Amino acid sequence: MPRQNTAGSPDPRTLPPEAVHTDPRGRIITLPPFDTAGTTVIESEPGAVRGNHYHRHESHLMYVVSGRMIYIEEDAEQRISVAEIGPGQSVVSPRGVAHTTVFPERTVFVTLSDWDRRGRRYEDEVVRVAPLEDRPEVAPYLEGIGELVRWRQG
After folding, report:
1. Disordered: where is this region (predicted)?
2. Domain range 14-142, CATH class
3. Taking the model in full, what pTM does it have?
4. Structural domain boundaries of the chain?
């Protein structure tokens, strides 16, 4: 399912690879252009919830290698947009925009960050928000996922 904005039309932030070259050896996938200060590979188990925050300084591009994720974003007017992002697709989380991801299956994705995430820098610039996955308009996207695995900081 392509990412949908609040009006129900395809959202231009769901990005396919810029190019894919295939030959007998395999594939070379060129990701969309994105200024990068760091790269992280994240593995998520079925039902995992990540996010429920926004970044003061960072934007990041998330590229799904395998599996799939439900990407949830809240705009400045508190409207929710939801998209399923699958293998070979990317989505950008802009700085200052609340977002979360829910994983219906085991998923591996790569995050390209335009902010140095090392050490305490990541946690110091993240602002936590109420769980976006609990919003009623998100429920249809989560059907069949089962119990969600959430991380709560104490």
Report:
1. 1-25
2. mainly beta
3. 0.85
4. 14-142
